[in-house]
Amino acid sequence: MIIAIGNQKGGVAKTTLAVHLATWLSRQGRRAALLDLDAQGNVAPFLGLERADDVAELFQAVLTLRPDRRPPLKSFLTAVPGYEDLVVIRGWQKSTTLEVALQQPGARTAPDVLQEILGPLLTIPRLDVVLDTGPYAGVLQGAAIALADHVLVPAIPERASEAGMLDIARRLAGLGRQITGVIPTRFNVVTREHSHTIKIWQDTLGPVVYYNRRAGLVGLPNRIIWGELVRYGRPIWDVAPRDAAAREMELVLEKVAYDAEIN
Questions:
Q1: Are 5 and 141 in contact (CB under 8 A)?
Q2: Which tens digit of pLDDT belongs to each residue from 10-41?
Q3: pTM of the entire predicted model
Q4: Distance CA 219, CA 224 (A)
Q5: Assigned CATH class of 2-259
Q6: Distance of alpha carbon 86 from alpha carbon 101, whole angstroms
């Protein structure tokens, strides 16, 4: 199973959602691999790891070396302390130059290279791949969306964030698919504009919008804790498991698991 998280708007909690989905899957007894396709490289510090350009180096190996000359995939995988069934492929600044390399005339397409990279991982039983993408509609984000079985779009209920959501919806429609889940994030539950926008999303998109007050599902509202977690280098399960935000994240991910038929 491949799950991509995307929105061309920054600051909408893509990495927060990606890290929590990957660690949550591990806590459920599944294996997970988390790829950081964002040049900001925030997955690593979010999990207490040093940043590295493993994604760019792995892509370059596939682009430039014969299969028998490439380093083994395991050399690009980094274990996550406290999560024995979770590995990450760290991304960082060189992903910017990778975007350029993948657009050169005659270069292999980004989906083709990413598919070759993910191939060995997808042969592992009960392993799910989570793809965290950058805040831009680049070729890496496009490849992630094209290959993913499910696409999640975190979005602040404001116009700048909404434009990114609509762009992904259009790209998926061109592939004959649709967004699996729109997760409202960093919104104020008492702000009329935010509540009105979420209602418009629901009227337009239907149940793919993760907001149902009766069921306790309210996306990921604005809370200080989300901005603090990277400082600790751990997800909320390890920092503040009894915080209300932890339960909100649990409900979001339980719905993701249901919609993606993860069992």
A1: no
A2: 999 999 999 999 999 999 999 999 999 999 99
A3: 0.97
A4: 15
A5: alpha beta
A6: 29
